[in-house]
């Protein structure tokens, strides 16, 4: 009598089929001849080709700079005879030309901050050392810059308590007028005549 075998369920068949496909995929990926793209061979330039490429790049850079310089000269160069020269703001000028003259704009902003003398620069560094102390080590760069600018402004406009106490040369000059005449005029309320006498004594016309 032949034994009877129960048919496999659909889930078991799907599991077996999927496992077989995974095995086939793993074999295909492990094969070095399949799926591995061949590396591109780099193009090796000779010394002559490299020198020629560098020469073309230098010529192109010189052409760009020459065109920009020509555009700058075409706008006209201001000199001291031009009335706009006195009110010229270099920072504002180059900021307004940074897109049409990009390379000259970069050069200008590298040159403009350069100090003509080292003394003001040294003073700024010495002053910043007093600002950025150990107890203020957490200050940001922007805050230090703001404090330095404020210190410079206040030092330029500092209060001079003795400024009005210093006599001028005009005030120290001798008034060649009889004191009794001045007293009599002041008593009579003739202040304009007193001022006229003092101005004439100082050699000033009314």
From TrEMBL:
GO terms for molecular function: protein dimerization activity. It comes from the Eukaryota. Pfam families: Dimer_Tnp_hAT. InterPro entries: HATC_C_dom (IPR008906), RNaseH-like_sf (IPR012337). Residues 68-151 form the HAT C-terminal dimerisation domain. Residues 28-50 are annotated as: Disordered. This is Putative AC transposase.
């Amino acid at each position: 009598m032949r034994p009877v075998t129960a048919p496999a369920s659909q889930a078991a068949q799907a599991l077996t089929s999927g496992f077989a496909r995974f095995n086939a995929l793993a074999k295909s990926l492990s094969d070095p001849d399949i799926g591995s793209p061949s590396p591109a061979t780099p193009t090796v330039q000779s010394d002559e080709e490299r020198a020629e490429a560098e020469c073309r790049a230098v010529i192109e850079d010189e052409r760009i700079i020459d065109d920009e310089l020509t555009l700058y000269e075409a706008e006209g160069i201001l000199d001291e005879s031009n009335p706009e020269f006195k009110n010229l703001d270099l920072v504002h000028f180059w900021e307004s030309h940074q897109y049409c003259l990009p390379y000259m704009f970069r050069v200008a902003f590298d040159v403009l901050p350069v100090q003509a003398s080292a003394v003001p620069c040294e003073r700024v560094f010495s002053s910043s050392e007093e600002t950025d102390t150990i107890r203020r080590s957490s200050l940001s760069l922007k805050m230090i810059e703001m404090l330095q600018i404020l210190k410079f402004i206040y030092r330029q406009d500092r209060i001079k308590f003795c400024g009005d106490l210093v006599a001028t040369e005009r005030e120290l000059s001798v008034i060649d007028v009889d004191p009794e005449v001045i007293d009599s005029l002041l008593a009579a309320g003739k202040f304009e005549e007193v001022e006229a006498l003092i101005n004439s004594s100082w050699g000033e016309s009314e």
